[in-house]
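Lab meeting minutes (informal)
Scribe: AK
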Amino acid sequence: MLRKQQTIKKEFSYTGTGLHTGEDVTIACKPLPVDQGIKFKRVDLPEQPELVATVENVHSTTRCTTLGTDKWQINTVEHFLAALNALQIDNLLIEIDANEPPITDGSAKVFCQLLQEVGIEEQEQEVTIYQFDQPLYVRKGEQYLTILPSDQFKISYTFVSNYQGLGDQFAEFIISEEVFNEEVSSARTFGFAHEVEKLQEAGLALGGSLDNAILIAEDGPINQLRFNDEIARHKILDIVGDMKLVPEFRGHIIAIRSGHELNFELAKRIKGVITKEELSC
């Protein structure tokens, strides 16, 4: 299966708050020619290093997906990558003046809007969309993640709650630009009240607030949910973002309790199968 590569029609910039630093962060997004991929560039550092957003460049999956090296990193890239994946943007330079993109409202909605406002441009070169002949499966403890053969990009997520006032959640969507925009992109990230103090003592989540995250206490969410299953929807958003780190594919991902660490393990499996076995396309 093939489609034309895409980039944006013109550059744009956006300034917002970093989730962990609590400081202003500016990103500048610029079109790139074909076959360049999604590149992040740290313009605040002396050498202005850059890298391509691929699974090989994942540095950490603790609480978010972090790209980088031992010398420099870019944290919490998954929300922006989710927007790029849903909109099928293949070539883009993201210049950033801090170690994380703006958190916006904790979802991917703002990024989708910004990209759609400047317009998406089809390019001459084609990109291959892979399909799976057999299932792939990863597991860690009670976390499960599998991908089944399908001619659609579909994600099913089961969130299992350990909190009174917050029940288990299930969400399932066939991911397209329209479905992502309407059903997934506005689902916000979330955190647990008992962890906030420890995180801030460690210099993390300094920009977190009820304006950009769902805060969950023992008796349930403190702020109003946008959807009854918003947490499961945000987990789907994260998967869409993390899967941007591998070549584009079609398949049905089924996830139970999984997070960025297991997403990364599945992404490595997917990349290995595609590059070594050349799946049907």
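Next up, CB showed the second protein from the same session:
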Amino acid sequence: MAEQKNTAAFDVLDQALVLDPGYAEAWNRRATLNFTTGAWGKSLADIEQTLAREPRHWGALMGLAMILERTGRKDKALETYLRVLAVYPALKSAQDAAGRLSEELVGPAI
């Protein structure tokens, strides 16, 4: 994935999932690869599989929140960023996104 050899990366991840369909991180990596290649529907399906195996997977939750935000479902995105922060309170990108969306949806704090 780091070398952007997407076809090879998909092949490796697909084989990993054939060998161990319960391996949450393989689902998450494939979700990330699908996200980066613009296949958001496939990414969502893989995120769903990741979260079914590991509901507190903050990386999968971040991916879900970003897709929700980019597709205009900002209220659901905010809820999901807050779920990320419940798992990983120090994650700056989730803090920033939650703050930005909260201000956008609710208005600035007084």
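CB comment: The CA atoms of residues 47 and 92 lie 21 Å apart.
No objections, moving on.
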